[in-house]
Structures are given as structure tokens and as C-alpha cells.
Amino acid sequence: MPDDAIRCDACPVLCYIKRGRTGSCDRYGNHEGKLVRLDPHVVLDRALERGDSVVPFLERSRDWDGTLVSHGETFVTAIGAGTTYPDYKPAPFIISSQVEGADMVTVVTEGIFSYCGVKVKIDTDRHLGAECSTVRAQGEAIGHVTTSEYGSQMLSLGGVRHLTGGSRQEGTATCDALLNLCNGKAVELKIDDGAKVVVQAGKPPIVDGAQEERMRVGCGSATIGMFAKQWFGKVDDVVVVDDHITGVLSEHQAGKLLGVPETGIKLKGRRSTPGRYFQVAEPGTSWGGTDIEDPLTILGKFNAKKAWPGLRLLMVSTTGEQHAYFELGEDLKPREKELPANLKESVSRIKENCEPALCTVLFMGGAGGSLRAGVTENPVKLTHSVRDALTRVTCGGSPVYVWPGGGITFMVDVTRMPRNAFGYVPTPALVAPIEFTLKLADYAALGGYLENVKPLSSIVAEDDGRKRVTARADNPWPLESGAKKR
Amino acid sequence: MNNRAQIRMLADGRRLHLHDGPMDLIVEAFGAPCEIQSAYRAASERFLNVLDELCGELSFLRQPCCEEAEWPHGAVARRMLAAVMPYASQHFITPMAAVAGAVAEEILAAMVSAAELSRIYVNDGGDIALHLTADENFVVGMVERPDRRSLAGTTTLTSTDPVRGIATSGWRGRSFSLGIADAVTVLADRAAAADAAATIIANAVDLPRHPAIIRVPACELAPDSDLGRRLVTQAVGKLTSAEVDRALASGMRTAELLLRLDLIRSVALNLQGETRVVGAMVEPRRIASVHERGLVHA
Fold first, then answer.
1. What is the span of the domain harbouring residue B30?
2. How many folded domains does chain A comprise?
3. For A114-162, what is each residue's pLDDT tens digit?
4. Average of per-residue pLDDT across B133-145
5. Residue B185: which CATH number?
């Protein structure tokens, strides 16, 4: 091979490209001895004192301070690194840097993930849809509703079945939705027989056109327990309406302990234990995640033997967003009255205790056999090394949770990653950055491509359109060992 | 699975674009929408494996073809070898001379077996495989030079014509040529056969040792070219009309031989604005506009 030609490894043709010429595809070329790429490659720059977010640093690194490099202050992410499908050869970048005297190696690649998806947590008590209901984007099935969590509804979106197992439209819609969610964009989702919800990582959900403000403080029963003392003496009974467990002060253990007398109140729904009721109404997007518009519809007739005219009743939802105050007339029927000032505080305290409702998006993917083969000749050793905590996995420089068990299946909060870290291929599949950092000696031990290891200084010195971004202060620095998390 | 390939519909919503490494195909099928969809899916699925298959046998496919050659394994590679085999005893040719046509043929075959369609074209960078059913036709535009989009003429292919493959070769195109033709367009029964024939005829349009022709060893431009140290044309100076005539006549002799051997159906040869036609069907004529259903053949 002539010395001024380079081998292009973008596709299996593996053209030798002479200086100033392009390969057989006309897309990759030899520019002054270097293979020319289009995407800027993101270098995460640790700026300890700087702000809380990742800021694109568009200018070339003309002010680069070489001493930072030797102190392990720069980390090359896999964003825009490209990949080497089918990964029968080393990952695009294998970079060594010195961290406190130890030679560290970071293997940087962009993984193409067919087996991937996002787990979405939507903080809302509103009913979004029944468990297992199909979630759609652009009319196509892209996932389903999974278990409800405390104050949140969970969606599981994507996955190989929707990406490549269905129609092309289904795959494309799924890929689109995942890409947008992972890159922090808003996506409108429709749940079969349920709500329409706009989801954006780090932003409040918008359910059927209404922006969610707060999470519930607790279930109805828990709310009774938390606020019983504050209500005692100011009101005769309180009903906290909740889709899960509706609480009644006078019957609840907390009321009993305070000596709240019986009020003859009667709730519809299935009684669980005293003062706690399941299924007082259908799930919905109104009071406490039920379909209740008029709270009185969940009450039966007051027991004339126990209730009394003038009995004061507060009905409130678990977020405090809905509330109504009643007093019983001579006929023992509730009549709505203005909320007395001394109760307003407790209602607003419920609100205060509700955290802002957000959507969170975790990308989840599995580093397959071929991707691992880009790191080492013996892929299972990489898995073991990750398992033994010798190798740190990061995603765009951000920390990940690696699932126990076989393989390298990980989750990452997309809001902790640099912007637009994700891409796609029209297969369709998602492209996500993934970096493996370990000691050089450990890398050698697991059969790494030592001959491909490049010093960091050679990467950051190359003036080829790499983008420097500031590391997030709340992310652990990828090159730092777990024991020394900041 | 191949994750490099880019598979998408073009903005017109009708044509499918397939891209992988050096392959770039435009596909259009005509028929019922559900049939078109099945055909596009079949094309995409087949396309995903083509480049890996080819590259698995690339070193063989870059070797000069000889009649005793062992047959390669891949379907596309077999189409390539079959297309160049007729020339093996007389000419230097490698199976790579038919790669574009063979890929087009293979994708077309996948579509035809997957769906009922009236017409299909698979255009692999100017080398085109066609499917035509009864009473259907294609209007094919032809260029004088592959690097320009202006049409030199059109020809209409009907279902009764045996032609199902079109290919163009010339030194201005993406692949190297040993000759000086701006464009040689061949109509043949199949795309791979047209591709191989166009290469052979374009190589024959030549003025050996003419001082106005700049030739460079192929390997100096692309170290792994299948043409090795053979001189490929990089520039052609202004030729006299007699020289143009002589070069075209040389190409026509080769074309007429291939025609008699039934390897091709017709040929249009272009050199510095002069066009010669061999065979019956091509009717070069200046046209004012491209027919709506036409293919721009560049």
C-alpha cells in the first residue's frame, strides 16, 4: 500500500484512498492523509467551576491547554464517533489518557441499537390508560403502558418488536419517537382508550391538553395521616379523593387516634380497612386521578343517627388542586360553602408538598456481541470486566446503570447527556454513544486492541471539527474511579 | 443485520432510495399500492445483505475473469461472472465490470418475485434493470456524457422488446475506462450483460498512443483498483473529426461483433458530440423535454 493512501473502514469495501481522492462511494475521502468525516465529534470538557448544563463549544480547540490532558480533564465521548459495523475490527477510537498516574483507556464507539427503547416516567395521578394498553405515535404502535409507580405512570416504548418486527411505518414511527425523546424533544403520544400525552424529558407532561403541575403528595389514606392534626378541630370530616385509596378522616386510624367522632358519612367504593376505600370512581383525569367532576357523587346518604346539621366536610384531591367545602343542612344534605380561611392553609400545604410533575426518559439498550467485539477480541471478557467494576460504561460521558445478569444492558437518563447525542439509522435502529473506560493493564488483560490505542493528545490536537462541550457538574467524571465519586 | 445501509423513500413518495457503501440505487415500481409496498420491502431486505456478500468475495471479483474460474457463492457475484464470462477469452475484464448491473438485476429479481407489478425500474447509478409486463413501456432518456444531465435522445422500450437492461460506460463516469468514449449506452436483455458490454465497447472507443489523451495507471489513483497498473483515461484533448470518427469506428466494430453474438441489442456511442448507433432500436433525436415517465440516464 502506498504510504500516502489510507484505508477507509466505513464499509466492508475497505477502499485504499489516495490523498485528495475519495473512495468508491464518493462519500469518504482522504483529506491530507486523514479520512474525512462529516459529523462533529463531541469532546466532553471538564470545567469544574462552570455551570450546570452542557454547552456546545463550537469553536475549534485553538486555546487548548495541553496540561489539562495530562490530568485527565478531557474525555472523548462516542457522540459522532461513528461505528464500525459489523464490528469485526476495533472501535473507531480507543484512547489512552493518564489519570493520576495510571494509564486509562477509553474505547469509544457509537452503538447501533436495535434492542433498545425508553422507559418513560410521567409524574401524574391522572389516568393515562390501562396497564398493557398500546401507546401510539403518529398513529403507529410504539410501546405500551406498564406498571404504575408511586405518583407516576410508566410507559415502555420502543424495543426490537416495534422497531423491526412490525410494518415499516411502525418501525419508522417508533424510531422517530425514540430519537426525539432521547434528544430531549417533545413527542405526542396517544394511549389506546386513554389519554393523549405530550412527553418531553425534564418537562411537565401535558395530558389531554392540560399541563400537569404537581405530583400527588401521597395516596388519599397517606394524606389523611399526614394532615389529620392540621384538620383536627377545624373541620368535622375530610375526604381525600384518590384513584388508588380514598381516605376518610373520621374512619381513618389517624382520626381515631385524635378522637375525631363518627360523622355518619358513607362512601361509595370498596372499603379496604377503616377509612380507606378502593375504586370510589373510575380512573380519569379529574379529582385525584379519577373521573370525578362533582365530588358529592362518591358519597351516599349521611347516616341520620350519627350526622348532624351543620357538619363541616372538606373534600380535597391528593394534589390539593381540587377541593370543595360543604356543610350539612337540616336535611343532612351537603351544601357547598366557601372554604374557611383556616382550612385554606391545609389545602395549600397539600399543594406545597406535591413535587413538580416531570417526565423522565431513560434510554435502555444492550451492547451486543458485535459492539463488544469492537472493544476486545474476546467480547465476554468485556462483560465480565464491566460486571467486576473494572470497566466503567458511560453513555455520552454520562453515568449509566448496568443491569445485573448477562450481557451489558444499561439505562441512562437522557437529560444528563450532551444535547442531540442520539442518532438513527434507517434500519430502523437508534445510534447511541457508548464508552468503556478501564485501566490500560486491564484492557490488555481482556484482549483489547492495544495496537489501536491512541493517546488522548492525538485526538484533541487534531483540528478536525471536534466539538468541545462542558461536562455537567452533577455527573461523575467518567475517568474517575467509582470509589472517588465527587 | 446491516446497519450501514440507508433505505428511505424519496420526497416524491414514489421512489425508493437504497444506499450502502458505494451502492446508490433509485427504484420505482408501478402497480397497486400494496404490491408496491411488498416489492419495496423485498428490495430493501435483499439490499441489506448485498454489500456484505460482495465484499466477502471481493478479492476474487477483482481478479481478471478466465473461463476456468470457480464460481463464486453470492447470487450477485454469480450474475457478475456470468455477464463478463463471454469476454474472458478475448479481453481483459473482471467481474467488477458488471457489478452495478448485477446489483440492479438482483434487486429487480427480489421485487418481481415478491409482488405483481406492471413496471419496475432499478437504477443503480445509471445501470438500469427493467421489468415490463404486456402493453407497458418505458421511455428511456440518454445522455451524451454521464457527467451531464442533458438528454441526447430518448428511446421507447415496449414489453415486446427483449431489452430489460441498460448500462452506460465512459471515462467521465464513476468507474475507470481504458477508452476515450464520453458515453457508451448499451441495451441488452439483462442489466449485468449491458454493464459488461458497455465496459468492453467503451474500452474499444480509443486512439492508442494519441498525445492528447492523458492516461494514468489505475492503481495510482485507487491503489486497490481491479485494473491494476493498466492505463485509465483521465483527460481527452480536442480531437479532429477524423480522429473522432476513427475512435468511434473502432468501438462500433466491437459493438457489431457483440450484436452478432446476441450479447446486446443496440448501442449508442458518444465522443465529443458525435453519436453513432449500432443496432435497431435506438433512435437518437433531439428532444425538447423529458417525457414525464422517462428515466434520466446519467
1. 6-279
2. 4
3. 889 999 999 987 889 999 999 999 999 999 999 988 878 999 999 989 9
4. 76
5. 3.10.520.10
ipTM for this model: 0.81
A99 band by pLDDT with thresholds 50, 70 and 90: low
> How many Cα atoms within 13 Å fall on the side-chain side of residue B246?
9
- One domain, residues A229 and A340: yes
CA–CA distances in Å: residue B106 to residues A198, A313, B116: 44, 78, 17
Q: Whose grid coordinates read 475490527?
A: A89
Number of domains in chain B: 1
Distance spanning both ends of chain A, measured CA to CA = 49
Q: Report yes or no: A367 at the B interface, CB cutoff 8 Å.
A: no
Where among A164, A180, A215 does a domain terminate?
Answer: A215
Q: Is the pLDDT of residue A397 over 70?
A: yes
pLDDT tens-place string over residues B99-122 = 999 999 999 999 999 999 999 999
In a domain, B112, yes or no: yes
The C-alpha cell that represents B148 in the structure block: 451531464
**In this structure, is residue B221 part of a structural domain?**
yes
| Per-residue confidence (pLDDT) for residue A6, from 0 to 100 | 85
Four-residue CA torsion sign, B32, B36, B37, B42: positive
- The predicted model gives A448-461 an average pLDDT of 68
Say which residue, A437 or B178, is predicted with more confidence.
Answer: B178
**Among all residues of chain B, which has the CA nearest to that of A112?**
B3
The answer to whether B6 faces chain A, any CB pair under 8 Å, is yes
pLDDT confidence band for A113 (50 / 70 / 90): confident
Report the distance separating Cα A473 and Cα A467, nearest Å.
18
Substitution target in A4, A21, A24, A430 with the highest count of B β-carbons within 10 Å is A24
Residues A406 and A453 both lie in one domain: yes
Confirm whether B287 is domain-assigned.
Answer: no
Q: Which of A164-178, B136-150, B254-268 has the lowest mean pLDDT?
A: B136-150
B205-222: average pLDDT: 92
Domain presence at residue B296: no
B60 SS3 class: helix
Residue A313's pLDDT is 96
A344 and A380 assigned to the same domain: no
CB spacing of B52 vs A12 below 8 angstroms: yes
Q: What is the CA radius of gyration of chain A?
A: 29
The three cell numbers locating residue B144: 451524451
Cβ pair A85:B3 closer than 8 A: yes
Q: CA of B123: how far to CAs of A199, B107, B113, in Å?
A: 42, 10, 18
Distances (CA, A) of B142 to B9, B32, B149, B159, B183: 25, 29, 9, 19, 9
**C-alpha to C-alpha distance for A168 and B32, rounded to whole angstroms:** 18
In a domain, A359, yes or no: no
Task: State whether A254 and A332 are in the same domain.
Answer: yes
Q: Are residues A225 and A332 in the same domain?
A: yes
Using CB atoms, which residue from B4, B22, B224 is nearest to A85?
Answer: B4
Domain that holds residue A18: 1-36
Q: Measured between CB atoms, does A7 come within 8 Å of chain B?
A: no
**Where residue A41 falls among pLDDT bands split at 50, 70, 90?**
very low
The domain boundary, picked from A215, A247, A267, lies at: A215
User: In the numeric block, which cell numbers belong to residue A108?
Assistant: 469509544
Helix (H) or strand (E) holding A427: none
